[in-house]
Every structure is written in C-alpha cells, then in structure tokens.
Amino acid sequence: MNPTLSFALLGAITVFFWLVAQAWTLLVLWAEGCVTRPAVPGSIHEEKRKP
pTM for the whole thing? Predict the structure, then answer.
C-alpha cells in the first residue's frame, strides 16, 4: 500500500481550497460593503437624530 497522495488528488484539493478562499473573500467584501455603506439621505435613522 502506498501512503502518498497522487498529483491528481493534490491538484483537486488545491483547486477546491482555492475556490473556497475566493468565495470567502468575495463574501467578506460584499458583507463589508453592506455594513459600511453610507445611509440614504432622509432615512429613518437620520430623522431620529434631529431634535
């Protein structure tokens, strides 16, 4: 029995983790963009701040 991994399996694992990392990066950038987006003028939150 040979305990080493084949190059095909290593390549598949590498591509899988690379795709997961890219998807995670896009998800984080999208979430950060949603959180840090400036408020729309005239929104409910701005009206509450005015005395």
Answer: 0.59
